[in-house]
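Re-running the complex after MR caught last week's input typo. The corrected sequence lines follow. Everything else is unchanged.
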Amino acid sequence: MSSQSNDSWLYEISAKRKLIELNFKEIWQYRDLLFLFVKRDIVTVYKQTVLGPLWFFIQPLFTSVIFTLVFNNIAKIETGLVPAFLFNLSGITAWNYFKVCLMGTSSTFRSNAGLFGKVYFPRFIVPLSKVISNLVKFGIQMIILIGFYIYYLSTGAEIYLSWNALWFPVLLLYMILYGLGVGMIISTLTTKYRDISLLLGFFIQLLMYISAVPYPMKALTNSSYGWVVEYNPLAYIMEAFRHILFNDPSLYFNETTLGFIGLLGAFLFIVGLALFNRTEKTFIDTV
Amino acid sequence: MSKTILKAENISKQYRLGLVGTGSLMHDVNRWWHRIRGKEDPYLKVGAVNDRSAKATDDYVWALKDINFEVQEGEVLGIIGKNGAGKSTLLKLLSRVTSPTTGVIKSRGRIASLLEVGTGFHPELTGRENIYLNGAILGMTKAEIDAKVDEIIEFSGCEMYIDTPTKRYSSGMTVRLGFAVAAHLEPDILVVDEVLAVGDAEFQKKAIGKMQAISSGEGRTVLFVSHNMASVSSLCTRVLVLKNGQINFSGPTDEGITHYLKEYEGHVQKNFQKWDLATAPEKDGIKLVSANIFSRSENEKDTIRMDDEIVLEYKLWANNLSRNIFVNTQFLDDNDFILFATTSRESVQNDNIGEEGFLTLKMLIPSNFFNEGNFSTNLVVVEDVDGKKSKLITKQNLLSFIVTPKPIELGEWMGKSKGPLRPSFKWEKEININ
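Corrected-run output:
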């Protein structure tokens, strides 16, 4: 009666694991869950706040004002042809997206331990939902950026769009790859040893300052700290993001370099995914 | 059409005892060092048996060890065992929350569990939004939820609050809503833990009814975990008894429950005693050869269910069968409190055969007399010589037996009723209209 051992099983649960496993079919089956997670993330952030979604605008604007005051008015950092405020706003918009992808992904296991401990669904859905829901916020912030872009154009700033703007989706993909890749690596480390999550906030802040966010790469390359940005793929991404928007020749932009940065991003993503797959099977025992 | 839908092959699960600290970092490093040299994990060899009360001597423990079982399609399998026997670990493995240390679980169907209701509820979302979120987490698609959302709301009885954030709900309402979603899942295999200790009486009844409907009416494969023997008995067709992380028993429900009661609640079953003629208890030419208490039902003589007729049988040897011998039996409950005594005196016929031989005395206890529980008997063998009675053989605690609950009907009271006896007497009703 039960001799159907050669029949196909729907799935098997065992300790053995494939190194890299991304079951797109399964993720597709759970697409409604992905959508609902995205919706939850967007809807719940500003519930019970008076200003509501306006907070999406306020954060980057305030930070840009402060950066402009500190780095440009006080520290006198030159931003080339780009108005300082617009320079900072664009950097913060891009950096914020990378940051929330990284933070959201790296806390996947710890902040969902309760949920993961009770039901199964493809765990990759969670970082994926963070990437998508933050994409919506990023989109809203891009609208403000465009608004100020148009304003500065009308006041005669020497910035313009070129065909290079087609790099935009590529750079966005890079931010996602780095955010997910590094985030997944960190997430696996935090499950057992929590020390890392305590370091993370500090680490990300430091990372921003060494990734050419509040200043152009040029400001550092001629100093003895030039290596900080020269060997930092994130700095190249931030710099390229501004270059394709403003076409300021003083901003560094090189297609070959970006190609290598893309390869490195893909590599980080694969390493992250391998670690993530390993962790998701048993992390609930050690979290 | 019995087709294996779920199969567990040699599954084991090891856990680390104590805290995660620098010691565990050393173990991780050591494990990694063994792995890159292509050697086996050194910590898989160690590991104590999962016995909660024993002193921890090892750093590792086997929460489950070498579990093998199969579940057929449409079967309702009960999983019973003491706290810490490994039930929850097994359910966690089956619901893919964590993976086994060794072994494989193979499944032909989607598994969903009623382990925890209201999983993933977000307090800021409304009841309706949470139905969708919770349903999707449990594996339903949006279309499936759309089709059932009205039914779910009605079942939960929270219609008035459905568009209010769940953080404003009382805890009971949250549970109701969570259970309502879970109860409307349609997986191939449903894992049900004891979720019934929630909600008020009205809702409990509703929940029990729904569960029985799922497991009996709809022919779904169900894995049912419970401490309530009455519900196990009424829902399950087969049970697994877990003990210290191992399968202690696997088989028919009644037998499994008896086994469980014996193993865990300290119940003892000594329903048959037999002696050789040479060694049998004897006095004045009368010997007690055997004593036996058993169910009169056809199949299972050793397990006694509440609704079985029970036979009590003594076999005596007498040097002269014309002697006027009778037996007096006391029935005691779990606390050795005498419930009642009964004597064979009136019923025994004296045939006046002056030869030696065997004498068998049988008594029939009607069905639905004892409540579920553990009982024991004392025996006194008495001889009546012209109205003068003398005790010949006295046996304290001669037999003990376990009465297991009977399956109950839909909507009936699931709990254990009080008292050691639960006789069903005949009642008459009289109505007078004035």
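None of the earlier attempt is carried over here. Chain A touches chain B at residues 1-2, 4, 7, 9-15, 29-30, 32-33, 35-37, 40, 43-44, 47-48, 115-121, 192-193, 281-282, 284-286 (CB under 8 Å). Chain A has one domain: 24-286.
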